[in-house]
Amino acid sequence: MQATTVRDATDASAANPVLQFLKRLLRLREFMLIVMIVLIGLVLQLATGRFLTTANLNAITLGFATSAIIVVGMTAALVAGGFDLSVGSVMAMGGVTTAVALRADVPVLLAMGAGVGAGILAGLVNGLLITKVGINPFITTLGMLSIARGISLAITEGSPLANLPSEFFVFGQGQTLNIPNLVLIALIIVLIGDVLMRRSAPFRQIYYVGGNEDAARLSGINVDRVKIGVFTLSAMLAALAGVLAVSRFTVADPGQGVGEELRVIAACIIGGCSLKGGRGTVIGGLLGLIFVGFINNGLVLLRVPVYYQQLAMGIVLLLAVGFDTISQRWQERSRKATRRTS
Which of 127, 146, 147, 145 is nearest to 137 (CA)? Predict the structure, then answer.
């Protein structure tokens, strides 16, 4: 009788669409992140009294707009089973390349294209070394981190490049419908990236490659081409972010983007990407970036020394990776238990 009652209750729960919807909602990392972001915002508002002001929220949004662009490429790299440590240096190289072209009187759009092109070249080299030579993504992108930074420092001799044409600044400082152009560009790229990752057949191949590379290859997917495309996309968007950052700040700094790779990787993992590949969304990465941005801004408003802010960022990254590892183990145990009972 008791077993029948439990079974009936389970069947009733399964038949109730509201309960099923709530269960699916609670399993969504994006939903839980939204809840956490709202709670953090409220707590920081109570603690500081000025966190939720329009000026502060605008500052936060502008602060992570370029990082949001990089999140799109990093999400693709993580889903494919790799990651890109060179994005911060490629970001600086893209900005420096554009500045050099502008100072040589190259038209604005062509100069921006040169900066993005430098990123495409760096990403293509990363992808070819990883797929054709067989070098580990960690070593490859770590090497490109040094190469791209070295190129930026050599070109500028370690000094920021200023005196750029004012028409270039419209991308980073202008507004459209009272919304900063930089934020609009970032939102458009994030939305396009999310739709492509969810709906486009070529981009869906990234999930198959990251989930099971051998199975993807046997099913006819050109794994090498997918990986080359992913790393090229990541570097291209990093360079574009660097170009837009120069447009915002009016100078090209060869030291720009230091530590950006850790910030973006942490945001993507918090947003649901797995270091093992095959899982993650662009919107989740954006929410993870907002989460990290809220914490950093809250620490600034609370007047926490910058050294402790770095400490907090490291702790957040470790907690995110730890949570991902534990959740992967739980899921694996759940799958094994399901197989035993079936």
Answer: 127
Q: Where do the domains of the chain lie?
A: 54-258+274-280
Cα angle: 238, vertex 240, 241; to 5 degrees: 65
CA distance 181 to 136: 37
Q: Is residue 67 a contact partner of residue 123, using CB atoms and an 8 Å limit?
A: no
Local structure of 176: helix, strand or coil: strand
Residues 275 and 329: beta-carbon distance below 8 Å: no
pLDDT in tens, 107-116: 999 999 999 9
Please tell me the pTM assigned to this model.
Answer: 0.87
State pLDDT tens for residues 177-213.
889 999 999 999 999 999 999 999 999 999 999 999 9
CA distance 227 to 204: 13
Structure tokens at 229: 């495309």
**Structural tokens at position 114:** 């040169």
First to last CA, the chain: 23
Q: Contact, 287 vs 37, CB < 8 A?
A: yes
Instruction: Tell how far CA 284 is from the center of its chain.
Output: 9
Helix, coil or strand: residue 250: coil
**From CA 33, how far away is CA 70, in angstroms rounded?**
20
Give the sign of the dihedral formed by CA 226, CA 232, CA 235, CA 240. Answer: negative
